[in-house]
Specification:
The longest helix has 70 residues, at 75-144. Strands 1, 2, 3, 4, 5, 6 and 7 form a 7-stranded mixed beta sheet that branches. The radius of gyration is 36 Å and the shape is elongated. It is an alpha+beta fold. 58% of the residues lie in helices and 16% in strands.
């Protein structure tokens, strides 16, 4: 069960149990008031009878001794009423909580089945994509060794870039399903160098490093994590505005001026897409969050509709060394 399913079950259980307790409280309050009024009425009748009987006994006994009849006491009845209501409240709470969890699981069952089908579909796609990609690469390499005209070389280049995009999609789908710690192989590298390599992803990306930052992590994972952020920014960009990547001390800042995000709280969910018309499977930002959690990197996202989005990632937990650059790389 993933965190989103647990959160949904907890929220549904809290709302359902809270609703039952609220209804029970109203009914219980009405019942308590009614029973209290009944007991008070019986107490008044009993006290009235007690006073009249004591008055008659006093007239018959001229010695003036106190009334020998026991004073009526209804405190035990009131205590019993409160105890019964308390026990009923606890039973209602336990049964309501159990019923809410059972209902939440029943409601989530088809959703969880769809998620499992989606995961199985992605696993099959990852496996099936490998064969045609490998065959296409072998044939492209064979073509590269032959004499080709400039126009043919241009076409081969386009095919090569298309294969690279297919390989990137395959890696992204595989990474989205990674659950094993063995998938990470850490090494030391300069994050600033990696950022400038990613700048080639789009002509709209500007990259600035104020510091040289050496970190220890899986370079492929960090590259995949960072690459997903500007790729999303390019996808939802407007008017070909610039997208900036800035490395300031330990913090990487990715800023765009795109359409913004309506639900920033949901963008890291797997398969979530705000615009169904856009390409993609809703996996990219989930990968970003997964890798940040693995390395305990603080991740902060701010977004405003029609203004843009800013993402900050703090690399201090995996920083080995950083130093100021005489001339910031741009």
């Amino acid at each position: 069960m993933n965190p989103y399913e647990r959160r949904s079950i907890l929220l549904f259980s809290a709302l359902y149990t809270g609703g039952i307790l609220l209804l029970y409280s109203l009914v219980g309050f009405w019942y308590y008031q009614k029973e209290t009024r009944r007991i008070n009425a019986e107490e008044r009748v009993a006290l009235s009878l007690y006073e009249s009987r004591c008055a008659r006994l006093t007239k018959l006994d001229p010695t003036g001794k106190p009334c020998a009849i026991e004073t009526p006491d209804f405190s035990a009845s009131k205590a019993l009423l409160r105890r019964e209501l308390t026990i009923a409240s606890l039973i209602t709470l336990v049964l309501g909580g159990a019923l809410s969890v059972a209902l939440a699981l029943a409601v989530l069952r088809p959703i969880r089945r769809n998620y499992r089908m989606m995961d199985a579909f992605i696993h099959a796609m990852i496996h099936d994509l490998g064969t045609p990609i490998s065959a296409a690469r072998i044939n492209i390499d064979a073509l590269a060794d032959t004499a080709l005209s400039p126009q043919q070389l241009k076409r081969v280049g386009r095919i090569t870039r298309a294969l690279q995009r297919l390989s990137a999609l395959q890696d992204q789908m595989r990474l989205a399903l990674v659950r094993s710690e063995a998938a990470y192989s850490d090494s030391e590298f300069d994050l600033c160098v990696l950022l400038h390599e990613l700048r080639e992803f789009s002509e709209l990306i500007d990259c600035t490093c104020k510091h040289a930052l050496t970190i220890r992590a899986d370079r492929t994972m960090i590259e995949r994590m960072i690459e997903n952020l500007p790729s999303n920014a390019v996808k939802y960009n407007r008017d070909n505005r610039r997208i900036t990547l800035r490395l300031e001390e330990h913090t990487l800042i990715i800023q765009d001026h795109g359409i913004g995000i309506r639900r920033p709280d949901r963008v890291f969910e797997r398969y979530y897409r705000e615009a169904s018309s856009m390409s993609g499977m809703g996996l990219g930002l989930g990968i970003v969050q997964m890798i940040c959690r693995h390395y305990n990197l603080p991740l902060h996202l701010e977004s405003r509709l029609r203004e843009g989005t800013t993402v900050r990632i703090d690399f201090r937990p995996i920083t080995l060394h950083y130093s100021s650059l005489k001339e910031p790389h741009a």
